Amino acid sequence: MPKTVLILGASGLIGSQLLSMLESDSRVNRIYAPSRRPLSGVGSKVINSVGDDLQALLDGLTEPVDIAFCCLGSTIKAAGSREAFHFSDVILPVHGGKTALQLGATHYLVVSAIGANAKSWFFYNRTKGEMEQSLMAQHWPHLTIARPSMLLGNRPTPRANELIAAPIFKLFPGKWKSIQASDVAKVLWMRAFAPASAAIEIIQSDKLREKAAESQV
Q1: What is the rounded average pLDDT of the residues 129-157?
Q2: What CA–CA distance (Å, rounded) separates 154 from 166?
Q3: How many CB atoms lie within 10 A of CB 152?
């Protein structure tokens, strides 16, 4: 049976590629993609409500949803403050989860980050860990959390820290090695339609890279 999907962060580095995969998938017949700015080049499957208040856009959804994705992610510098970063990387993903559950979704696939830990000394890692814990507390039938390392890909507006750190992270071993955003999107897409192996699935960056490579064999 064709699926109805909700995706947050469809204009971002991972989300834009995931959206393209979902549009091309015959198993998907409708995609709700609320965003702050209009999405360009989307087809008839995509329903793109636009507004500055993503929470309000989510609250305006009433049609049933089968699967939900969250690819929202910022930095303190890009967000402008710790409070704004917490809003974009905790409040919105958690509100998206709550909304999707209310609309009947049974699987939530979320992009977190390597090192996510609610007890971390580092604010970024602690914020991501808080987001993960809040989603686990929603008791999803199936929750998939991707923890990528430094992302590689072409952003419309490059992030200075990524331009500096990306060459270094390419040399790191295991899960710390940088990863293509397209590989993260591909694994999220594949896992959305795969049998659930556990209620909560956390996929570290090295496993994301392996799973993406296996799909090309």
Answers
A1: 90
A2: 12
A3: 18
Please list, residue by residue across 188-213, b when 16 or more beta carbons sit within 10 angstroms of its beta carbon and e when fewer do: bbebbeeeeeeeebebbbbebbebbe
User: How many other CB atoms are found less than 10 A from the CB of residue 132?
Assistant: 24
Which CA distances in Å does 97 have to 40, 59, 68, 92, 140? 25, 12, 8, 9, 9
Read off the pLDDT of residues 186-206 as tens digits, 9 standing for 90 and up.
999 999 999 877 899 999 999
pLDDT, greater one: 98 or 151: 98
* Residue whose pair of structure tokens reads 């496993």 in the numeric block: 207
Is residue 107 within a helix (H) or strand (E), and if so which, with residue range? strand 107-111
Residues 6+ apart with CB under 8 A from 182: 17, 153, 212
- In whole angstroms, give the CA distance from residue 11 to residue 35: 8
Give me the residues paired with residue 144 across strands: 109, 201
pLDDT in tens, 172-185: 556 768 899 999 99
Compute the distance between CA of residue 169 and CA of residue 164 in angstroms, rounded to an integer: 10
Separation CA 99–CA 108 (nearest Å): 11
Q: Which residues pair with 146 in a beta bridge?
A: 111, 203
DSSP 130-146: HHHHHHHTT--SEEEEE
